Amino acid sequence: SRPYVGTSATESSPADHAEDVVSELSTILTSGRLGIENKQIIKDAYIDELNDTAATDPSENALRLALQLILTSPEFHTTNLVAKTGALRTQPDPPQASGAPYKAIV
After folding, report:
1. What is the pLDDT of residue 9?
2. Alpha carbon of 89 to those of 92, 94, 102: distances in Å?
């Protein structure tokens, strides 16, 4: 996808451009498994970064942020679909001391 410039009359809106970019990155990096919630979060962050008037190159910053967010998503780190349940994970019991002396080498 081309970088968003926003100066051409034929160029799509930032929201449409964000949808295109995030969909393409999702296809390339997660084989299209990126969930709707995560996709919306990434699109919103991409648009916010595009609208940053203080940045010297907002389109590059927006793309970099979208990449970082996708790379930290659970869909990037798995090979199957992610199903969010909303349930909290149970905490494992802390390990019991063995009583044997412990020596660490640093």
Report:
1. 46
2. 9, 15, 30
